[in-house]
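Hi R.,

Here's the chain you asked about this morning:
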Amino acid sequence: MKTTDVDRYDANTMKDKAKDAVKSTVSTVQEGLQSGLSKTQDVLLVGLDATQELLKEQRKRAAKNLKKAQKRTQKNLKNVRKSVQPGLSQTQEALLTGLGAAQVALEKNARRAGKGLKKTQKNLKETRDTLQSQLERRARKRARAKTMFRIGLLTGVVLMLLYTPWPGSETRRQLVAFWQGLFSRQN
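And the predicted structure, written out as tokens:
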């Protein structure tokens, strides 16, 4: 074997190892991002489910309260009819007031539930925006890291060539051979 064959073999080995390291790093980062994204989506879905369940429960309670109020109103109306005819108009007014209060309470609960739902939607949007900005920052960092790695690799190769024990003409010949071999493999 000639020295150029050994050098070419070492350069190719170093190039292959560098490619393997870059691929490994890229796959590790991608796996981490995918894992984080899926966990975040799971957490958001759990939060959304919990909010929906809470809204259902509040609606059921309001419907039960309304039914109970209606039942109580009907019972009171029967008792009033049986016992006191003169106080019927006063009792009817009291019942209407109670029904109005129940409706007001129901409307308040419905408004509160609507506000809670709007807040949840806003929180989900903010969380989505935050996640997107985090992903964009990670992509920028990754691109910066790739660029720095490439610059470092190129600097290392240039420094290696500058401090080789071969004369300049031999180094230039090896560089030309290396570049020609590199471009011929790409084509």
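The mean pLDDT is 84.

Let me know if you need anything else.
M.
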